[in-house]
Write a structure and sequence with these properties.
By secondary structure, this protein is α+β, with helices and mostly antiparallel strands. About 20% of the residues lie in helices and about 40% in strands. The chain has helices at about 15-25, 65-75, 90-100; strands spanning about 5-10, 30-35, 45-50, 55-60, 80-85, 110, 115-120, 130-135. The longest helix has 11 residues, at about 15-25. GO terms for molecular function: metal ion binding; methylmalonyl-CoA epimerase activity.
């Protein structure tokens, strides 16, 4: 199955400072900003486009339950995950299952942009948090 880099997720402590850096220093454009209090997300998210490549800035909104807060506490700010666009999330999940690769329980969801996503278990991915995603509403 073909995979293509979709975006990089970056855990940040101060989203305003990070937006400033990504737009004013790197020349990116802020294309969306929103807050998600969904369980397992609990973050403020800013999407930056730099010449067609996307970076998601992720700032925890709940320092007790947000997975981004846990990540920052354990590893510090920085790259949180790498997301790959797959043609069909269902087919990709079947392929993972056949290969013995687990996903993080409860991480399957659809975000506000219609992107369906799931995180692969870092224990099976050499320690990197990898997201698989597709956009079923888009042609």
């Amino acid at each position: 199955m073909e995979k293509k880099l979709d975006h990089i997720g970056v855990a940040v402590r101060n989203i305003e400072d990070s937006i400033n850096f990504y737009t004013n220093v790197l020349g990116g454009k802020l294309i969306d900003r929103y807050r998600s209090e969904a369980e397992g997300v609990e973050s403020e998210i800013a999407i930056i486009d730099i010449d067609g490549d996307r970076t998601e800035l992720l700032m925890p909104t709940n320092n007790t339950t947000s997975p981004i807060a846990r990540f920052i506490k354990q590893k510090g700010k920085g790259v949180h995950h790498v997301a790959y666009h797959v043609g069909s999330l269902e087919q990709a999940l079947e392929d993972l299952k056949e290969r013995g690769i687990r996903t993080l329980e409860g991480s399957l969801r659809t975000n506000k942009h219609g992107r369906r996503l799931i995180y692969l278990n870092p224990a099976d991915t050499e320690g990197t948090i990898i997201e698989y995603c597709d956009y079923p509403e888009q042609p």
